[in-house]
Amino acid sequence: MNHRVAIYPGTFDPITRGHEDLVRRAATLFDKLILAIAESPAKQPRFTLAERVEMAQEVVGDLPNIKIVGFNTLLMSFVHECEAKVIVRGLRAVSDFEYEFQMAGMNRSLYPEVETVFLTPGEQYMFISATMVREIARLGGDVGKFVHPSVEKRLRATTTA
Fold first, then answer.
1. Helix axes 149-160, 49-60, angle to 10 degrees
2. Could you give the CA distance from residue 76 to residue 8 in angstroms, rounded to a whole number?
3. Side-chain-side CA neighbours of residue 113 (13 Å)
4. What is the β-pairing status of strands 5-10 and 86-90?
5. Most buried pick, 2, 57, 97, 152, via CB within 10 A?
6. Under 8 Å between Cβ of 39 and 10
7. Would you say 82 and 34 are in contact if contact means Cβ atoms under 8 Å apart?
8. With the C-alpha atoms ordered 27, 80, 44, 129, is the resulting torsion angle positive or negative?
9. At what angle do helices 17-27 and 49-60 cross, to 10 degrees?
10. pTM above 0.85, yes or no
11. Cα 141–chain centre separation
């Protein structure tokens, strides 16, 4: 049987409703979806890798065909290790396209057998970015409509600490 395995990589710092929308939709397209959470120390994430994995588990762990893992290697090495043939990426706006297009081309040059599939979030999530969510939370704003309640709770805890 030919299993369709896809990887949706990202920093997910934190996982937003837009990410959740893409995960839930991508999970219907593939036999197995791996939500690959990058350690990304250069980005200086607000949450540790373990915390980001826990949050993702709380938000989308109910999906039967999803596996949530952290990784700290080159994405294409991780894709190859997982024997995946598809990378899922989200596009919110035209501004995302240029970077994602360049990344897809670079990935294809490393592993031509791996395809990149772009999904757009539902229109109610098009403007949400983890960076904006972190900033709103840092300044004491309400992020409840942008993230799952468990993520909102963690964001509030980090801003009052």
1. 150
2. 12
3. 6
4. parallel
5. 152
6. no
7. yes
8. negative
9. 60
10. yes
11. 23
Q: Which amino acid is at 107?
A: N
CA 141/CA 134 separation, integer angstroms: 10
Q: What is the C-alpha separation between 65 and 38, in angstroms, rounded?
A: 20
Degrees, nearest 5: CA angle 74-133-93: 70
153 has a pLDDT exceeding 60: yes
The C-alpha atoms of residue 71 and residue 105 are separated, in whole angstroms, by: 22
pLDDT tens for 65-123 read: 999 999 999 999 999 999 999 999 999 877 788 889 999 999 999 899 999 999 999 99
Q: Which residues of 99-131 are buried (b: 16+ CB within 10 A; e: fewer)?
A: eeeeebeebeeebeebeeeeebbeeebeebebe
In one letter, which amino acid is 92? R
- Residue pair 40/26 in contact by the 8 Å Cβ criterion: no
Alpha helices in 61-120 (DSSP H): 75-81, 94-110
- The token pair that represents 122 in the structure block: 């539902």
Give the closest residue to 78 by CA, choosing from 126, 113, 36. 36
Q: Which residue has the tokens 């350690």?
A: 39
